[in-house]
């Protein structure tokens, strides 16, 4: 089974036909899909200007899409290395019980659903690397009251999502499932009892 890097090389390989290059880009999302597979694919299609079902897109657009995905993955992998090192130090110092960030991180290991978007058509418009920088920055500081990606404070509680956890605060502005560790307990409670209850897409 090909890994992310070999699939990314296939996307760039001019000797491959366009259908294979497009297929390889889709396969990359099985290794790294920050919004989930469908929403990340929609983001790349919208950003780079090719149709979701286009079997022969402009190869330059495919290369741009895979480059954006690679930059985002590099940011996430660097975070995972730093996270693992921090946990080693904590265990060495006797802190065995993982915190809420650790619990969230365990569900996103490898980069799937980091900023889950249950509705594949609703996702942040910013480039993936910028979204991940903002999210990681929020995980490394004190909890706040707004979405770490778009700064919108309008969070609605959604149930029945195709994700674990299957319910949580979703940003009305950009569509991500906001990780609980980046929100204050008050912000979570406001989302829980807010008037807006989103139904699954």
Account of the 3D structure:
- There is one protein chain.
- With 201 residues, this protein is mainly alpha-helical.
- The protein contains 7 helices and 3 strands.
- The protein has helices spanning 4-12, 18-28, 37-48, 59-92, 100-107, 128-139, 185-193, and strands at residues 155-158, 168-171, 197-198.
- Strands 2-1-3 form a 3-stranded mixed sheet, with helices on one face.
- Helix 2 packs parallel to helix 4 and helix 3 crosses helix 4.
- The protein starts with a helix and ends with a strand.
- The relative contact order is 0.13.
- It comes from Streptomyces chilikensis.
- This is DNA-binding protein.
What is the structural class? mainly alpha
User: Compute the gyration radius: what is it?
Assistant: 18 Å
Which regions have little confidence, pLDDT < 50, spanning 5+ residues?
none
Instruction: Report how far the terminal alpha carbons are from each other.
Output: 32 Å
Which features characterize this protein?
201 residues; single chain; three-stranded mixed β-sheet; mainly alpha; 3 strands
List the helices and strands and how they pair.
Elements: H1 4-12, H2 18-28, H3 37-48, H4 59-92, H5 100-107, H6 128-139, E1 155-158, E2 168-171, H7 185-193, E3 197-198
Parallel strand pairs: 1-3
Antiparallel strand pairs: 1-2
Helix pairs in contact: 1-2, 2-4, 3-4, 4-6
Quick structural gist:
By secondary structure, the protein is mostly helical.
């Amino acid at each position: 089974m090909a890994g992310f890097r070999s699939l990314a090389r296939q996307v760039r390989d001019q000797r491959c036909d366009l259908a294979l290059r497009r297929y390889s880009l889709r396969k990359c999302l099985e290794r790294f899909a920050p919004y989930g597979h469908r929403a990340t694919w929609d983001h790349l299609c919208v950003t780079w200007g090719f149709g979701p079902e286009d079997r022969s897109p402009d190869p330059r657009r495919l290369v741009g899409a895979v480059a954006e995905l690679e930059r985002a993955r590099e940011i996430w992998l660097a975070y995972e290395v730093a996270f693992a090192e921090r946990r080693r130090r904590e265990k060495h110092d006797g802190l065995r019980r993982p915190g809420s960030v650790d619990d969230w991180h365990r569900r996103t290991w490898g980069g799937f659903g980091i900023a889950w978007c249950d509705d594949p058509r609703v996702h942040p418009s910013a480039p993936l690397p910028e979204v991940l920088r903002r999210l990681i920055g929020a995980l490394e500081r004190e909890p706040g009251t707004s979405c770490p990606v778009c700064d919108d404070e309008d969070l609605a509680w959604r149930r029945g999502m195709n994700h674990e956890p299957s319910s949580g605060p979703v940003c009305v502005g950009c569509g991500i499932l906001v990780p609980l560790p980046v929100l204050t307990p008050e912000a979570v409670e406001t989302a829980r009892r807010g008037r807006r209850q989103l139904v699954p897409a």
